[in-house]
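Whether sequence alone determines local backbone shape is best considered at the level of individual chains. In the encoding step, the backbone of a single protein was reduced to a row of integers, each denoting a local shape. For completeness, the protein is quoted in full, as a sequence line and a line of structure tokens.
***
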Amino acid sequence: MVLPFLKLGTLVLKTLSKPIGGRLKQQAGLHPKFRNYIINMAQANHRITTTMQRRIYGHATDVEIRPLNEEKAVQAAVDLIGELFVFSVAGVALVFEVQRSSRSEAKKEGIRKEEMEGMKQRDEELASEVELLKHKLQELEQLTKRRGGIASALNFRQAHTEDGMPVKPA
């Protein structure tokens, strides 16, 4: 019953993180120090991605890569920040889900171990009871041998009918 609500909560958290990421994008471009920092981050990202693309497509990588203009750099950086925020929220939700699942599996494994221990204990009890019954049966057999048969050991008397004749066994 908890699982559907937990998954729904995770989905709501992911959905809410997108507008928060958008708000971060909007605010990131307005503060001057942060703006300079994200411009540098965007330029570094641009150089890395351009170099990787050139290598993938087999183009020369020793050419000069023109930097992005300031507005494109700010836009690329805030897009990257927004996506990183959404991705990090999804990652945290995933880690939480894996930990919850792991705890659930550990609890189930503990219950299975307890059940197995109970079965082993019951098996041992039954085995000892069987041994006790075997011992009693041996004693009974020895007693009947000493007394001359099972009828004497159990002290049976033959039943008689009303006219004094013995009853035939069925």
